[in-house]
Design a protein that fits this description.
Layout: E1 17-21, E2 25-27, E3 32-34, E4 39-45, E5 50-55, E6 58-63, E7 67-69, H1 72-87, E8 94-97, E9 116-122, E10 127-132, E11 135-140, E12 144-146, H2 149-169
Antiparallel strand pairs: 1-4, 1-7, 2-3, 4-5, 5-6, 8-9, 8-12, 9-10, 10-11
Length: 179
């Protein structure tokens, strides 16, 4: 197989890495699926944790967490690739959760919707290591978006508004009027 590079020069054959599926996957929208134990070829890896794969001639996006390398050489190459990919990510940046998450394993961490977390490390399979409420744990990276200062100001104002709204609806005992 010959590929054409962006500058229109012809490159040599591209070696596709093979992965085993550790679980069944099916996407009803695209009709893409594969069975547990299937051997898939990875065509493209996205930092979001979704990889473009070839499953016996059918192309589709699959969650990277469903795939493990077939041989030792691929495992070593994947580790190097993960390090290259993650070194370009901004560690220490703050992110905001789009929804709540309940940890299902000891190495994961739970958080509420709207939680502001600090990124420790991103992995190519889409899982992140974060710091939240004094704890650290793994979470699905797809549940976050970048948090910047402008959002921070609006976020704090919204929290204050909600707090004051709740505070103002409390019934506070008062003295009876003298009539």
């Amino acid at each position: 197989m010959v590929y054409v590079a962006a500058d229109s020069s012809i490159t040599g054959p591209m070696r596709l890495r093979s992965y085993y599926a550790v679980a069944c996957y099916s996407d009803s929208k695209t009709k893409f699926s594969f069975a547990e134990g299937a051997v898939l070829q990875v065509l493209q890896k996205d930092p979001s944790g979704w990889w473009m794969v070839d499953a016996s001639g059918a192309l589709g996006w699959a969650p990277a967490s469903y795939l493990v390398p077939v041989d030792e050489e691929d495992i070593a190459e994947e580790k190097e690739e993960n390090e290259r990919l993650m070194s370009s990510m901004r560690v220490g940046a703050r992110y905001i959760s789009l929804s709540a998450y309940q940890a299902s394993r000891d190495d994961e961490i739970s958080f509420v919707s709207g939680a502001i977390v600090k990124l420790i490390k991103k992995y190519a399979d889409g899982w992140w290591l974060i710091r939240y409420n004094g704890g650290e744990g793994f979470v699905p990276g797809s549940m976050f978006r970048k948090f910047d200062r402008r959002q921070g100001t609006a976020y704090v104002k919204n929290i204050r508004r909600k707090f004051h709204a709740r505070k103002s609806t409390r019934i506070i005992p008062t003295m009876k009027p003298k009539w």
